[in-house]
Every structure is written in C-alpha cells, then in structure tokens.
Amino acid sequence: MKSHYLLLFLFFSCIFSSKAEKEDAFTFSHTPTEMRSRFAMLDDVRILANGLLQLGHGLKDFVHKTKGQINEIFNKLNIFDRSFYDLSLQTNEIKVEEEQLKRTTTILQANNQEIKNMSLQIYSKINEILNDRSHLETKLGGLEEKLNGLTHSLPQASELKEMSSLKNVIDSQDKNIQDLLKVVGEQHNQLDHQKNQIKDLEEKLGDGVFYENAEKSFSSKQGDEPRTMQYLPNNTTNKTSEKTGLPADCSDIYNRGVKTSGVYPIKPNQSEPFNVYCEMTEEAGWTVIQHRTDGSVDFDQPWEKYEHGFGDLEKEFWLGLEKIYSISQQRPFILHIDLADWKKEQRFMEYTFTLEGREQDYTLHLSQVAGELPDSMSNHTGMRFSTKDRDNDNKEDSNCAENYSGGWWFNACGDTNLNGRYIRARSKARLDRRRGIYWKPGKGSSYSLMSTKIKIRPRDLESFN
Q1: With the C-alpha atoms ordered 343, 380, 249, 282, is the resulting torsion angle positive or negative?
Q2: This prediction's pTM
C-alpha cells in the first residue's frame, strides 16, 4: 500500500511540474526553447505512464492477494459448517438414546408396580387359604375326638365319607399353597431383576457421578479366582482433576497437594484411566505395583491375568504388566522393593528401572542404586516375563513358572521369585521353599519372605516441582 501512495505522489508531482514549465515557457520567445519544453512535456507524460503502469500492477497484485484470503476464509467457514453439522447429528443421536432410556425406565417402573400389586393379591389369597386350612384343621380335630369316642364301635359310613372328603380338601389346599409360594418366589426374583435394571438405567442417565475414588474391598481366599483389574471409563474424573485432568501417577498426585495414602485414579500417557494404590511418604508419592501380605490372593495365574492385573488394591494385588509399562514409559523411574521375613525384620532394595512393551514380553532392565541385602535382581535384568502358560525363561527343558509357581522374570529355575506361592510357615523342604516367596542372591543363602511390596516413582523428583 505504501508503494501505491508513492506512485500517486509522483503522478501529481509530475502534473504540477509540467504546469509550472508551461507557465515559464510563455515568458520566453518562441525559439528552440519552446521545442525543448515540448520534449520535457513528453518526458513527463512518459514518467506518468510508467507510474500508472506500476500502480496498475500493484493494484492487480493486491486484488489477487485479497481474493486468495477471501477464498481461504470461505474454506474455513465450510469446514466449520461441516463440523457444526456433524456435532448436531451426534447431539441428536444422544438425545434419541436418552429418550429411549427414559421410556424404558418408565416401562420398567410400571411393570415393577404391576408386579407389586400382583404380589399383594397373591399374599391376600395365601392368607385366605391359610385361614381356610386352620378352619379345616379345627374340624378335623373334632372328628378325631369323635373317632376316639368310637373305639368300641365301627364308624358310620357318612362319617367316613366326610373324613375322606375333608382330607382331600386339605391335600388340595396344601398343593395350592405350594404352587402360590412358588409363584411368589418367581415374582420376587422378577422384582429383583427389574430393580437392578432400573438402577442400571438410572446410573446411565445420571451425569453427576462417573467413578468411585477407591475400589470396594472384597474377600478372597487362597485358591479362589482373583478379580481382574479393569480400566476405568473414558469420562472418569475426580475432584482433584476437574480442571487439569487425571494425574499421570502417584507422584503427580503428591505434587498436587494430596499427602494421604489410598486408592486414586490415574491416566498415564497413551493409556486408559485406571485405579492404583498410592503410598505417600514425606518426600514423594509412590505407585505400588505389587503387594503380598497374607496369602489371600493366589498369584499362580496365567499370562492374561498378569498382563491386566488382579487382586485387591487395598490388600494383595498385582497391578498388571501393561499398566506398569504405561506408567514407566513417561520418564525414568526408580523401583523400590520392601521385604520382611518371618522374624518381621525388614529390608529394602532400590534399582533404576525400565520395562519394554508387549511385543518384547515386558522385558525388565534393572541397575542397583541402594539396598540392605545382597543383590539378587541383577540376574533377572534383560529377561522376559514368564507365566505357566507362556515360558520365556532360559531353561530349555523346563518351565520355571509352572514348576515353581507364579509369574516372574525368570532366568533359570530357583532364582528370586516375589510372586511365588504364599507359604505361611517356613518349610524345611527345599522344593516348598523354592515354590514360595523368597529372595536368593547369586551367592549365599536365600531368604524366605512373609511380605513384599514393590513400588515405583520418577527418578528426578525435582522435575515435578
């Protein structure tokens, strides 16, 4: 635009200069000076023409540039219109589904009320039958008294006929009562089913609560099938993350000001949200990935269980290989192991820790940084995870997980195994000890363990502050 203004200025300057030269020309005689003035005017016209030409080119470029910008704006408007249209279609679909759920809930509530009315009617009939039965039993008692008075004489035929008819009536009433009780039981089962359906639909229609902060505890005994740890729904939120999103791990929760240990939801990168148990200490928040305390959960599980996780987060559990992998991929981590023997003496070990993904069968890499026991985990670094139905150990003629129980990063059979069978009393049999929970350094004696806890946190805590 500045070049356009400059050209206009030169245009008007040329016009004024030509006029001034014409006025000066009249003051001189009509000699060769007049010829020079005419040539000067031609030069001015030429300059003016060049200026107008440049001005035209500038205006042409400006028009093309403006046209391109307008086309770009129209394209963005078209994209916005399509996005708005798609959003309106999705909104309509959600509204239709919500209306269908509401109609279904209304129908179920009406059926529930109808069943309740039927139950009341059935109970009323049962009461009438019971009253009739009591009346008949009274009559039967009177007949029995008459029979006792006729011990030395034969009863009359009419009395025998009346007794027989009364017994038939009583048997018929008993059968009716049993049938009605069976119908009442079926009605009760149907009522419970309807109530569960209504509760599920009301939970789907409600918008206020999307998850519970802590999983409910459940009781499981050694040998029972442990509960698999599931992922949370995508719309899971909690009070501490309404504005900033779910935390990535327990250290993130600790840095948000939460200092109480417990079960919390997290969402590591490239993962669905899930619950974890956070152990909060004075200096950091630890994410617990394994805990053994009392043998309430059977750790002799197949690959699928070890991959997804199992147990009770507030008691004994294994968090799951895919969850541990999703947490550890975010940054370098420290792995901390707490151990307690049957004399209740406690020790710990710490390692730098990385874990490879599913394609590498969750290969483990460790390097010791601290500890109070001889190192036994260095023999497991670089090993793939093994279970009784997926053998990845270095023992060609044997499956260590199947022979010694539990899933672990076995190198050779007889190594350290913190997921072995929980043996309450220290066994004298060598095979029983090897199938239990134990810590075995490369040299020296092994340690039979009463409890273990494996937890992780980021290596550089200052990066979170």
Answers
A1: positive
A2: 0.52
